[in-house]
Amino acid sequence: MATRSMFLRILWKLLGASRGRLALALVALSSGAAVSSALLNVNLDAERKLTQEFRTLGANVVVAPPSGGSDAALADASVMDRIAALHAPQIVAAAPYLYIAANSGTQPVILAGTSFDQVAKMNSWWKLEGNWPSSRDGHLQCLVGSGAARQLGLELGSPVELRSADRNISLAVEGIVTTGGAEDSQIFTDLGVAQNLAGLSGRVSLVQLSVSGTPSQIDSVTKRLANALPGLDVRPVRQIAAAEGTILGRIRGLLFWTIALILVLSMLGVLASMAALAMERSRDVGLMKALGGSVSRIMRLFLAEAGALGVLGGTIGFLIGIVLARWMGGRVFGVAISPRPVVFPMTIVLTVAVALIGALPLRLLGRIRPAEILRGE
């Protein structure tokens, strides 16, 4: 107990001495820890933020019959109940579609029946003029693609008469949407309305799903869907999944090498400070040896000093890193980065490791000969 108390007293004295050198080492460690902490927070939070952003870009999984072009190729609408029965939290939205060929006067057009609340959740990036359709006042409403609106001369509030086989329907244009895709040439209405017009009650052409998560997690959900929906073709939209994997991989690689570079620079700063400190403490070490101190005990003392600097520098850096991560998230990524508690121990471990490696010049003190120090050499 007395030995431990003496050890701590000497350690405290060492931390109080050579404050200039130790301050430089602490600044180097805190700076490296701050940047590393911020980048670790960004790395851990970027995956969740990016997958959330990707989920606003449309469907990344499609469920459809094996073949198309006939009524037999349509799926039963109960597929929606079977998808919901999976209780998969990764499924952000599931929108059923029934596509039918219709005519507006002499102009042919594709009418798509769907669930607007799911479509809105899945495609928040669509440029919408007007509002999403609803069942207000009993009037049947529709959403018209910008290309179809130009072709048919439709505006907001305009009525549009559609015919399919021997059935007719009148819809009011509630919104005009621009997507830059095939949707621009289509008219969208409620799924039940389209089913009644086509005489295909309880049938859908396909289901589009927005599944969150990493590419591997999306593949896992796709396999679960395939097992739960035998006889249907469940396939991911490979372009979106590949884009997610590529972007996440590049961000991780960039952040990893940036953190590595910052830690190396911090280590060099600590090395420089500790090398100068070793020269200053040569007399102290010689006196310790002359009084019977062993090299191992003396080195443990200096390594404990370096470790204490690492813990202090890591703590300061972590707190600064939280502010830096928020700034980086807002200015660079345009999202709010949430601090992760797991980053604190990671930052401490990295900073202590850098401090201990940077303290290697203190090993030279073990070669000091007490007789030479006492003679003033």
Task: Specify the biggest β-sheet.
Answer: 10 strands, mixed
Q: First CA to last CA: what distance?
A: 36 Å
Identify low-pLDDT runs: none
Mean pLDDT reading: 78
**β-strand number:** 12
User: In terms of quaternary structure, what is this?
Assistant: single chain
Rg on CA atoms, Å: 34 Å
SSE series: HHEEHEEHEEHEEEHEEHEHHHHH
Shape: elongated
The percentage helix is: 40-55%
Number of H- or I-type helical stretches: 12
Strand content bin: 15-25%
Q: Helices and strands: which structural class?
A: alpha+beta
Please sum up the structure shown.
With 377 residues, the protein is α+β, with helices and mostly antiparallel strands.
Describe how the helices and strands are arranged.
Blueprint: H1 2-16, H2 19-54, E1 61-64, E2 75-76, H3 79-84, E3 91-104, E4 107-114, H4 116-122, E5 127-130, E6 141-145, H5 146-152, E7 159-164, E8 167-178, E9 186-190, H6 191-198, E10 203-204, E11 206-211, H7 215-228, E12 233-236, H8 238-280, H9 282-290, H10 295-333, H11 343-358, H12 370-374
Parallel strand pairs: 4-9, 6-8
Antiparallel strand pairs: 1-11, 1-12, 2-10, 3-4, 3-11, 5-8, 6-9, 7-8
Helix pairs in contact: 1-10, 2-8, 2-10, 2-11, 8-11, 10-11
